[in-house]
């Protein structure tokens, strides 16, 4: 800490987050090849049901196939507290706020001092407003558009309609009362339409950033698109130039508590890194630090959601502490099974640095427990 001010961490700097004082002891243990007593971060899918029908949904093949009962979901919240989990992201799969038990989960976790993040399509924020405003450290809304027409193109409801106005109104309501951060997520979507015409949302990035600032969002995040196997989809040179120009213009909106950030995916597309991310290590240390809990099973990570070869157990019928105690988190070989872009690749490389005695100084304070 310099000059009496707390050192902050960039919200996208996953490596720096490893060095927070409450996480580093577990990180250091894992770096030496030992097992963790419990995950530090859990991605939790309360349900696989969703009220939208997005054509590019990465989980499209897994949707509308089940959910946790409200009773089991409440039990899971208690088990996360028992495991001393530091942060939970309610996500999907489906739309997490569509489950009537999610409100109780947010309250249980929040009152236990566990950091709570929520990834949502925004249509049901108003039904969960009090809990989100009180306990969520951040809420990230997947909007991907700046107008109702483009929203209908990339995020239609099941009847082909647009819930854009409802989503934006819900975000404004949350912005007025929130204690945590509110984010506007923008996945750059490009597709070939009828007769080979290119269609998508790549022309509305700047307008969406302007809208995000007007709503009262704290950040606007730009992301790149995956294919069904989680490989990055490149953009043509012409479209990439347009996207880069709009991101550069959007960055000029930053200030007064508003920031424009790139995900690691859009950074990779800008660098022309290609769809494949080779890895020369055979065990993912991050699987000891994070896990995914869904109605269809507990998996090593969200990239392997629904993959039977990456399944650790069944959280519908088994207590999560029991699954963690007996499961083998080394069932996935990153060099073979994870050749797609992984946001935690740099964290795995840093674990090797820590194991080799080249750790960075531990920070004086916790800042963001979503490692």
From TrEMBL:
Q: Which domain of life is it from?
A: Bacteria
PROSITE patterns listed in its UniProt record: RADICAL_SAM
Q: Does the keyword Transcription apply?
A: no
Annotated ranges, domain Radical SAM core = 36-259
User: What Pfam families does the record tag this protein with?
Assistant: Radical_SAM
Q: Which keywords does this chain's UniProt record carry?
A: Iron, Iron-sulfur, Metal-binding, S-adenosyl-L-methionine
Enumerate the PANTHER family for this protein: RADICAL SAM DOMAIN PROTEIN (PTHR11228), TUNGSTEN-CONTAINING ALDEHYDE FERREDOXIN OXIDOREDUCTASE COFACTOR MODIFYING PROTEIN (PTHR11228:SF34)
Q: What is this protein called?
A: Radical SAM core domain-containing protein
Classification from the root reads: Bacteria, Bacillati, Actinomycetota, Actinomycetes, Micromonosporales
């Amino acid at each position: 800490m310099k000059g009496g001010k707390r050192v902050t961490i960039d919200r996208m700097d996953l490596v720096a987050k490893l060095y927070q004082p409450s996480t580093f002891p577990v990180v250091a243990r894992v770096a030496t090849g030992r097992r963790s007593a419990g995950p530090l971060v859990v991605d939790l899918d309360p349900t696989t049901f969703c009220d939208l029908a997005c054509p590019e949904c990465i989980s499209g093949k897994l949707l509308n196939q089940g959910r946790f009962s409200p009773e089991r979901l409440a039990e899971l919240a208690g088990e996360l507290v028992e495991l001393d989990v530091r942060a939970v992201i309610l996500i999907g799969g489906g739309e997490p706020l569509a489950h009537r038990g999610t409100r109780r989960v947010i309250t249980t976790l929040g009152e236990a001092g566990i950091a709570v993040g929520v990834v949502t399509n925004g249509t049901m924020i108003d039904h969960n407003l009090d809990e989100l405003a009180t306990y969520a450290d951040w809420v990230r809304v997947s909007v991907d558009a700046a107008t109702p027409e483009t929203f209908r193109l990339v995020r239609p409801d099941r009847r082909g309609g647009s819930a854009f106005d409802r989503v934006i109104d819900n975000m404004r309501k949350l912005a007025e009362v929130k204690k945590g951060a509110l984010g506007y997520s923008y996945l750059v979507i490009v597709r070939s339409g009828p007769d080979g015409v290119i269609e998508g949302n790549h022309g509305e990035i700047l307008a969406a950033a302007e809208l995000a600032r007007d709503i009262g969002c704290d950040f606007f995040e730009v992301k790149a698109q995956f294919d069904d196997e989680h490989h990055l989809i490149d953009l043509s040179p012409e479209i990439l130039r347009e996207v880069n120009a709009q991101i550069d213009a959007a960055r000029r909106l930053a200030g007064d508590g508003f920031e424009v950030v790139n995900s690691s995916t859009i950074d990779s597309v800008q660098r022309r890194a290609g769809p494949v991310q080779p890895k020369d290590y055979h065990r993912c240390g991050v699987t000891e630090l994070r896990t995914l809990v869904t109605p269809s099973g507990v998996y090593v990570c969200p990239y392997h959601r629904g993959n039977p070869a990456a399944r650790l157990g069944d959280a519908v019928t088994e207590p999560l502490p029991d699954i963690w105690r007996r499961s083998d988190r080394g069932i996935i070989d990153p060099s073979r099974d994870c050749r797609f872009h992984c946001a935690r690749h740099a964290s795995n490389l840093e674990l090797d640095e820590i194991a080799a005695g080249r750790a960075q100084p531990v920070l004086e304070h916790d800042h963001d427990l979503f490692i």
